[in-house]
TrEMBL record:
Name of the featured protein: Replication factor C large subunit
Record lineage: Archaea, Methanobacteriati, Methanobacteriota, Stenosarchaea group, Methanomicrobia
Similarity comment: family membership: Belongs to the activator 1 small subunits family. RfcL subfamily.
Bias (Low complexity) ranges: 459-476
Stretches the record annotates as Disordered: 443-507
Gene3D superfamilies reported in the protein's UniProt record: 1.10.8.60, P-loop containing nucleotide triphosphate hydrolases
GO molecular function: ATP binding; ATP hydrolysis activity; DNA clamp loader activity
Cited function: Part of the RFC clamp loader complex which loads the PCNA sliding clamp onto DNA.
Domain AAA+ ATPase as annotated: residue spans: 42-163
Pfam family, one: AAA
Description of how the protein assembles with itself and partners: Heteromultimer composed of small subunits (RfcS) and large subunits (RfcL).
Keyword Lipid metabolism attributed: no
BP-aspect Gene Ontology terms: DNA replication
Length: 507
């Protein structure tokens, strides 16, 4: 039995030349990959960003096929990913095939926009660091560019994938029909492509659904109902802003999957641009339009207060028909519709709050204070420290700060060279300390009982839950052994003679 989605997989492009649309994006991707064949390019990762179903994942796979690269596909939001990428990303120099030629592995990180703001800040940081020094090409796939941290974005080549035009989809759908032996009536594929609203995967799925159990399909077989995709708001807005019939403007919202509360934000965001055009002149139409919007907003407030949803109808009429009759001047030219900036600002605020909360936890742990105290009293102290050149790197080392966290503490808007420098110096120092510790604990020592402990044992010994730890866990508490029995104290001191002792610095 077949299931929907099977054709989309079966007809996934095998080569970049088969990718429909997004010619420029494909060219940029190819150019970037070409650089990897003889050197390591400055931007070692690319971000393929765009809405679902337009060929981002397919392009990454096709690229690997075209260049003969092995694929390692990981889900970016999986906590284990950072380790896995770390292992693969550093191993390029060993990737020689038997005939002596080098071949690469393409690391594909799906859902890269899911990392940001998640509790797994460590993963974001690790990936941010890895893409700076990877020896293997990395492709990050994301629906929302803004969901990716600024560090990752600034170190990657951003390639945007756009919705696919319906006329470009038709040949691809035709090819599938030919292969599957389906005969299509006039306008069938055009209709399917139009309904898909730029999403080729949906078009292929719709074609499969309508073809099930048939070898001929006609226009009547295609459901005429509009898709409830996000894109449909872009079909309703012109009827509100460009129409002259208030009834039609209101009726256009029937098929919309947005509440009047959301719709009012869309209209509010776009009214000024639509009615003032590119000249940006405020005119009577704009004033009247905002008058209707204000009244619609009044009704929306009453709906909330009284929980009387019948009032939505009045709000809806005012914000659609009211706007339509406000327009007296004919406006030429195309002005793109913008999603409400308020939503974006709220999203940014949330991301900022997450960052602040994570930072409070870090500082609280470092200073042995409560998170609340850390948030209200210690973050301001660290703000000052980060601004002072004498303490900025030390603070970044102590807290193992990410670039985003340094940016937050310094209060800047963008990641500057100075911020990057602080981060790099701090990371170098952290790495130095770690390698120093490893060397210290693993190098043979005269007269030591634990003289030839290997790296693995050192790692095990630093795990507080490990019973095989070679270092007395009491040493790690506070150095005060007053509460220990006498016998243990002397045992401890005799051990200390022969064993490297941990200091507070090590923690
Ligand atoms: N540009 C395209 N060219 C050819 N086929 C495409 C294209 N876009 C989508 N398809 C078809 O849709 C299927 C899904 O596409 P793909 O997985 O590449 O989309 P995506 O943009 O990565 O979506 P998501 O963000 O959901 O992962 C493919 O297997 C292929 O059949």
């Amino acid at each position: 039995m077949t299931h929907i989605g099977e054709w989309a997989e079966k007809y996934r492009p095998g080569s970049l030349s088969e990718i429909v649309g997004n010619k420029k994006a494909v060219e940029n991707l190819q150019e970037w990959a070409q650089k990897w064949t003889y050197t390591i390019p400055e931007k070692r990762a690319v971000i393929l960003a765009g809405r679902a179903g337009i060929g981002k994942t397919s392009a990454a796979h096709a690229l690997a096929n075209d260049f003969g690269w092995e694929i390692i596909e990981l889900n970016a939001s999986d906590k284990r990913t950072a380790d896995a990428v770390e292992r693969v990303a550093g191993s390029a120099s060993k990737m020689h095939s038997l005939d002596g030629s080098t071949s690469r592995r393409l690391i594909i990180l799906d859902e890269a926009d899911n990392l940001h703001g998640s509790s797994d800040r460590g993963g974001t940081r690790a990936i941010g660091n890895i893409i700076k020094r990877t020896k293997q090409p990395i492709v990050l796939i994301a629906n929302d560019l803004y969901g990716i941290s600024s560090t990752v974005r600034s170190n990657s080549l951003e390639i945007k994938f756009n919705s696919i035009q319906s006329r470009s989809m038709v040949p691809a759908l035709k090819k599938i029909c030919r292969e599957e032996g389906i005969m299509c009536g006039v306008g069938v594929l055009e209709k399917i492509a139009e309904n898909a609203d730029g999403d080729l995967r949906s078009a292929v799925n719709d074609l499969q659904a309508v073809s099930m159990g048939r070898d001929e399909i006609y226009i009547e077989d295609i459901a005429t109902s509009q898709r409830d995709t996000q894109g449909s708001i872009f079909k309703v807005l012109p009827k509100i802003f460009k129409g002259t019939d208030p009834k039609k403007a209101y009726e256009a919202t029937y098929s919309l999957d947005e509440s009047p509360e959301d719709l009012v934000h869309w209209i509010d965001e776009n009214l000024l641009y639509q009615y003032s055009g590119k000249e940006g002149i405020v005119n009577e139409d704009i004033k009247n339009g905002y008058g209707y919007l204000a009244r619609a907003d009044l009704y929306l407030g009453r709906v909330k207060k009284r929980q009387n949803y019948r009032l939505w109808r009045y709000a809806g009429m005012l914000m659609t028909g009211g706007i339509a009759i406000s327009r007296t001047q004919q406006k030429g030219g195309f002005v793109r519709y913008q999603p409400p900036s308020l939503w974006r600002r709220l999203g940014q605020l949330k991301a900022k709050r997450n960052l602040r909360d994570n930072l409070s936890v870090k500082i609280a742990a470092h200073c042995h204070e409560s998170t609340r105290y850390s948030r209200s009293n210690l973050i301001p102290v660290y703000r000052q420290l980060l601004k002072d050149d004498n303490y900025s790197v030390d603070s970044a080392v102590n807290l193992d700060l990410s670039v985003d966290e340094i940016l937050y503490l310094t209060g800047g808007r963008t990641v500057t060279k100075k911020i990057q420098k602080i981060h790099e110096l701090a990371q170098d120092r952290i790495r130095e300390t770690i390698s120093h510790d490893i060397e210290f604990y693993t190098s043979p020592r005269k007269g030591s009982a634990s003289a030839n402990k290997g790296l693995e044992e050192f790692a095990a010994s630093s795990d507080p839950g490990s019973s095989s730890s070679t270092i007395d866990s009491n040493d790690a508490t506070d150095g005060n052994d007053n509460n220990r029995p006498e016998s243990e104290k002397s045992k401890g001191s005799s051990e200390k003679k022969g064993k490297p002792q941990r200091t507070l610095f090590d923690f």
